[in-house]
Amino acid sequence: METVKLAFIFFACISTVTIIVTAADKINSKSGRRRIPEDFLLTLAVLGGALPEYIIMKTIRHKTRHKKFMIGLPLIIILQIIMIAAICIYTQRG
Predict the structure, then answer these.
(1) C-alpha angle with apex 31: 57 to 37, nearest 5 degrees?
(2) How many CA atoms lie within 13 A of 45 on its CB side?
(3) pTM
(4) Nearest to residue 29, comparing CAs of 76, 74, 55, 64?
């Protein structure tokens, strides 16, 4: 149970950071300021922020023309769902 609580806290934190960083990159792109590197945005996605990143990008129309994000993020989400399902199945067997 403690592990589930920690996982929830981690995903809440990574989701919040991902949303803030993605929105900041959109603001920076409009104002001509220094941008957030795409690799950093993708790293946040891999760490667990793929779903919130995809949602915020579609909502604020940011990087929606980049195949790297519009194809990559859904693939990362699918892989994360498969991994979570596998972990759940594995832990229930043991």
Answers:
(1) 55
(2) 26
(3) 0.89
(4) 64
